[in-house]
């Protein structure tokens, strides 16, 4: 079973991060995730903006085309 702890800290000189917790066991392997806040001058894109910015062409123009494609895929599973 996995467990998690949440610790806030600051980046130290040399761009290092130290983590201390009484629940950590010496020698135990752990995964460390560093989540950096979005700076005020970085504008976050909406999901729609992100999708529109991709170079992939739109495959379907209407919901009917999507439904027809899904129907064809499901029909192919039976064969």
Task: Provide an overview of this structure.
The chain has a domain of 31 residues. The protein contains 2 helices and no strands. It is elongated, with a radius of gyration of 23 Å. The two termini are 41 Å apart. 0% of the residues are buried. The model has no long low-confidence stretch (mean pLDDT 84).
Short description:
The chain has 79 residues and is mainly alpha-helical. The chain is 28% helix and 0% strand.
Please state the oligomeric state of the protein chains shown: single chain
Number of helical stretches of at least 4 residues:
2
* Poorly predicted parts: none
Rg, alpha carbons: 23 Å
Main attributes?
79 residues, mainly alpha, 2 helices, elongated
Topology of this structure?
Elements: H1 47-53, H2 63-77
């Amino acid at each position: 079973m996995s467990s998690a702890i949440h610790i806030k800290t600051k980046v130290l000189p040399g761009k290092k991060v130290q983590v201390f917790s009484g629940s950590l066991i010496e020698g135990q392997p752990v995964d460390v995730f560093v989540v950096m806040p979005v700076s005020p001058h970085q504008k976050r894109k909406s999901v729609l903006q992100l999708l529109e910015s991709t170079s992939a062409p739109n495959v379907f123009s209407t919901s009917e085309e999507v439904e027809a494609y899904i129907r064809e895929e499901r029909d192919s599973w039976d064969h």
